[in-house]
Amino acid sequence: MEYKQLQFTCQKCGANDLCYVKYVKCTIPVSLPPESGHVEYGQSIINEDDSLATLNGFACQSCGLLVEHCGVRLETEKQLIDYLKMEPFDRLHQQQDYKELLDAQMSAQERELYLSEIAAE
Ligand SMILES: [Zn+2]
Hints:
binds zinc ion; alpha+beta; 8 strands; single chain; 2 helices
């Protein structure tokens, strides 16, 4: 089998550097000082042990954009490798299909909303 060099290219800024973003639970105390009419924030507390699995993912090191394919965030190495292994043409094609599907769903929803508004009048 031919070895294929994997390369990441950011869809937003075109950079090739990848990073892994691991969001950790960050707690910022909020206080409401009496009579002041505003909100005050204290020192943030980062809990490394309590990471939020849903917000982990590979991202562009340059602009921080999380890498997504067809609405799925790439969180595991397997997802990333599968994504990078894809031919750019196929990748683009899949993305376009996905976008069309989204647009179609969206317009169906909008149409329903429009019809329900008319019915309400
Ligand atoms: Zn980027």
